[in-house]
Amino acid sequence: MINLLLTGGNGVDALTVVYIGVSVLLGIAVVAALVSQIFVAIGYVKGNRMQNAAGLSGAESARKLLDENGMPDVQVKKCTFWRMFFFGNHYSIAKKTVYLRKYTIDKTSVTSVALAAQKVALAKQHRDGDKKMIVRGRLQGLGVFAPVLFIPLVVIGLAVDLLVTHSFIFTVCAIALGFLFIVFGLVVTVLNIPVEKKAIVCAEEWLKSETYLTAEEYAVVKKIYRSYMVQYVMQFVVALLRILQLFLKVLAKAKRN
Q1: How many CA within 13 A on the CB side of residue 47?
Q2: Does residue 32 form part of some domain?
Q3: What is the value of pTM for the model shown?
Q4: What angle do CA 41, 43, 46 make, to 5 degrees?
Q5: Domain containing 242: what range?
């Protein structure tokens, strides 16, 4: 019965067909994600060349918003090299700190104010006890490293089995642990959408009052935010398809063995 489900009536392996289909969809999604990143970069650069009328830097606007919203205990700091490389502009729930890149924290551009406001909105979610934001924040490291941990874990498990146990115990455990990490990474990617969307809505409410930005500058910011949201959605689609592809690949190897 199982063989009948996995093999079409004409002898074509249905599992292989599904794997190819998922791989094609993944390729399309990766291209779409790349295009969304290009739009984000274009919006970022355009806003970064436009000086905001209030003359506020990223650090100043973040500090002002934090104080106005009752968060004097939250710090604003420049990203270290590694934070910038792995996380970019972000809010750390562990440090209760808004971290901004060098060219965000010091510049008085429209982009600097927009990104600072959105990260302050994340700090507000943390203060208000938003469960999705807190879970996302605690798993954020896995969201970055999980996709690259799977293969090293399997290689280590296989090496231990070949050199020590002469079985597949550690290999199976490594595969299971790798899948668990990938699932945690997917959870982060899923939570990015509602958490970042909520932060963007909050930031837009702050910025449209014209205290920080003019109406023209605010229109540019809305486009930047929209591009980021499309990027978050595409990242989720790519992550989901990659997990499905990996699962099908493991299933196909198990079927052959």
Answers
A1: 28
A2: yes
A3: 0.79
A4: 105
A5: 2-51+128-256
Which tens digit of pLDDT belongs to each residue from 188-223? 888 889 999 999 999 999 998 878 889 899 999 999
Say how far apart CA 138 and CA 195 lie, in whole Å: 13
Instruction: Read off the tokens for 199.
Output: 């932060």
98-103 contact pairs (CB < 8 A, 24+): 98/62, 98/66, 98/74, 98/122, 98/123, 100/58, 100/59, 100/62, 100/76, 102/78, 103/48
Q: Does the pLDDT of residue 8 top 80, yes or no?
A: no
CA distance 4 to 41: 49
- Please answer whether residues 15 and 251 qualify as being in contact, where contact means their C-beta atoms are separated by less than 8 angstroms: yes
Residue holding tokens 């079985």?
167
Q: How far apart are the two ends of the chain, measured CA to CA in Å?
A: 18
What is the three-class DSSP state of 55?
coil
Is 147 contained in some domain?
A: yes
- Read off the tokens for 116: 């600072």
29 is a domain residue: yes
CA distances from 186 to 19, 91, 130, 145 (A): 20, 20, 19, 11
Is 170:157 a contact under the CB 8 Å cutoff?
yes
Count structural domains, the chain. 1
Asked whether residue 175 carries a pLDDT value surpassing 90, the answer given is: no
**How would residue 254 be classed by pLDDT, with cut points 50, 70 and 90?**
low
Look-up of token digits 């799977």: 150
pLDDT classification of 235: cutoffs 50, 70, 90: confident
